[in-house]
Structure formats: C-alpha cells, structure tokens
Design brief:
The chain is an alpha/beta fold and 134 residues long. It has a single domain, classed as Rossmann fold, CATH 3.40.50.450. It is 45% helix and 18% strand. The chain contains six helices and five strands. The model has no long low-confidence stretch (mean pLDDT 94).
Length: 134
C-alpha cells in the first residue's frame, strides 16, 4: 500500500524529521511517498500555487492512503487531507498524546494513532496495514 506522507514545508530545515517519519512508515510495511522529499527535493520548486496544489493532488490520487500529523496545525497539510478524503483514500492521523483533535479531523480519519515518541506509530501502522490488506 502506497501512502502519501504529509509534512510541513520548511525548505529542508526539517529534512531529518521527514526522513525519520518516512523510515518509520516503511518499517511498518508501507510504500512511502513524501511530496517534499520526492518531488520538491526539500526546496521550493513551485512558484505558482495552483500548479503546486495540482501536482500535490495528482500525487495524492496516485497513493492508496494519506498520513498526516495533526500535532500542529497547517493549512497545506489540511488541504492535502481534504483532497484525500474527497477521493475516498484512507486517512491515518497521527497526533502527539495530549493534543486535542477536532471532530472534523476525527470525521475523516480511518485510523487515529496517538504517540509519545514518534516510534510509537510503527506497530499501530502495521496493524492497520494488515487490516486493510486482509
């Protein structure tokens, strides 16, 4: 199952965080895809916002699921989740334990995983993958 991993765009400042998240997703058994890493190569490539979102939509539609960390708010990641929801893709929300999740987010999630350490997401992701593939 190929999963689109959302991440905040920080022009490479969060490269190690993104790589860590992608590695954990792979460890759980998913084929990972991260727009910032795989298309933009951690740098600004799109100067036309419509072109950016059109390409993001294309990539989301080429995936089976979307993973979004809602521990902090972000318009871009929320838009990507909306695209995935509208396309009927599976949506997995990860969130730092103790952070309040809005009902609207709960309403689009196929799976919600709380974590203290980011590594806490691996086993629940594995279990989710097994559920959807059986």
């Amino acid at each position: 199952m190929k999963i689109f991993i959302t991440a905040p765009f920080k022009e490479g400042e969060n490269k190690s965080e993104i790589e860590n998240l992608c590695n954990l997703v792979k460890e759980a058994g998913f084929d990972d895809f991260c727009f910032i890493r795989d298309v933009e190569n951690y740098q600004k490539m799109f100067y036309d916002p419509q072109e950016l979102m059109s390409r993001a939509k294309t990539e989301i539609l080429n995936c089976d699921a979307l993973l979004i960390d809602l521990s902090t708010s972000s318009t871009g990641r929320a838009l990507e989740a909306g695209i995935a929801f509208g396309a009927g893709k599976k949506i997995i929300i990860i969130i730092n334990k103790g952070v309040q999740l809005r009902d609207t987010a709960k309403g689009v999630a196929d799976k919600i995983i709380e974590y203290v350490e980011l590594t806490d997401i691996v086993q629940p992701l594995r279990e989710f993958l097994q559920e959807v593939e059986s």
